[in-house]
Design a protein that fits this description.
Layout (H helix, E strand, L loop, with lengths): L11 H14 L3 H20 L5 E6 L2 E6 L5
Antiparallel strand pairs: 1-2
Length: 72
Amino acid sequence: MARTRLTFDVSEEVAELLNELADEASTTKADIIRRGLAVMKVAREQKRHGRPHMGFVEESKKLDAEVVGLLP
């Protein structure tokens, strides 16, 4: 797959968060951004199907946390 190089500025807080997430996952900052975009893509697809919220579960049929407002 062809790749395109992107350059953008982030706040020090965001840069620190990217570093922390990359270190914890033993991966690169670019990979963390790719994973975040994958989550946004899934959220967009689900919103298009009338499911605008995302959730986290530990057990089936028990919602532990819900994400709202991820997409406009």
